[in-house]
Write a structure and sequence with these properties.
Number of strands: 4
Shape: globular
Oligomer: single chain
Structural class: mainly beta
Strand order of the largest sheet: 2-1-4-3
Order of helices and strands: EEHEE
Amino acid sequence: MAGKKNRDNKAWMIPEGETRATASHHFIAAKTLSMIREGKKLRMRKYHPGKQEHVWFVETKMPPHSK
């Protein structure tokens, strides 16, 4: 019997200080199971192609999908 697949391991990352609606760039990052259990939010420094520099990205809620 296969175990339950964890679907909560993805995080929507947007530049710090921006909202989901006005985000100029975003990407999806994977969270580890221990981070999910502890309730930690991701915050990482990545390259922003629009600004052409490295900026801090923070985790936000995944957008709803449309069916």
